[in-house]
UniProtKB/TrEMBL annotation:
Span of domain CdaR GGDEF-like: 176-287
Family: Belongs to the CdaR family.
Species in which this protein is naturally found: Gordonia hankookensis
Domain (PucR C-terminal helix-turn-helix) ranges: 335-392
Leader sequence segment: none
Designated name of the protein: Helix-turn-helix domain-containing protein
InterPro entries xrefs: CdaR-like_regulators, CdaR_GGDEF, PucR_C-HTH_dom, PucR_C-HTH_sf, RsbRD_N_dom
Amino acid sequence: MTTVRKDPAADPDEELRLIATMLRDRLEGLSAAVALAIRHDVDYYASTDAVSLDDITTTVRANFELVVYGLTGDERFDTSQAQETGRSRAAVGVPLPALMHAYRIGFQMVWAEFKSIAQERTELSRSTLLDATARMWQAQDAFIMAMAAAHRERTTAKILDDASERAALTQHLLEGRVSSEQSLWEIADILRLPHRGPFLAVAAAAATVGRAPLAGIENKLRGIDLSSAWRLLPDQQIGIVYAPSLSARDQVIGLLTRTAVGRVGVSAPFAELADTSRALRYARVAMSGKGEGVSVFDDSVLGVAAVTAPEVTADLAAVVLGRLYQLAAEDRDPLFETFRMWSAVGGNVTDTAERLFVHRNTVRHRLRRIEELTGRSTTAPRDVAELCLAFEVDEHFPVAGRQPLS
């Protein structure tokens, strides 16, 4: 056991300067040893080359030079290097727990070096050793706290920057403002989306400006292993979802139904990212349709035709269905319901009657009524095509009350 001689005449400041000088003389070797220990003992540093051994060594030395310098005074430690370390390590993705572990290793090894000096220089007074010990622990607290605060600040800023970039790129992708195939791939990588689908485009109406109608949807989708990207606009929330199978699409629709607080439109599946803006257009059409909840756009020829030139198709629907719109709702609604079901089952009267729980004669009577009011036959192919398109348009656009072009 080493005995420390108590010298009443010893100058504490001079002794602290001696300790600091001896530590400073050993910093080069100590910094290299600390860097090796960090590389070996901290899992993050041991498993990645994101920070080189030379960089670790340089950073360790820069921090400890300020620690040693601060041992000789009563003022606050200069923690600027610790702050810079926190910021720079956060920028390259070093986790805060790993960085804190590295600092603890460093201070433990500096403390061991300080202990070695105390054992070598037995003339040092007890009070000086106690003062130096207290300053050493103050330095550890100050440097780790400064480093951690800077790391959290930079991480928060990086998260916000990343979120802003992802939101902007999502909007560019969904609105078709992408210049090249390479850009599509780059955007997909940043958004953490596959380069090929199937994808779904989604548009959700916001009841309150700036408030997401599908709150937390990205995390909820991630919870069922589906990647997505979203952008909140003043009146809508738009997004793209990777849905690789029919089961996945059903999961997406179910989740949207449970999450939505307003009207939501979903596109038909599409394979190429270059088609995203067109898919979003169809999702918005589905969103603006009648009813409540989630609507999936019909990507049939009729569905696409109905929305391709809305001004033209809405005029057509107004011409064809004009007299139907003049009926009272209780008379009009059964006719619309019957025609849609009749067309959905391929024009089969019996199946239509079974689906609507009415007699076949009722179906025939309603179809004849539609023929009378529209001037179109339900047996002539051209007339049936016009009727189907007009009813499809009615599904997507407000046609009732529209004055058709003469």
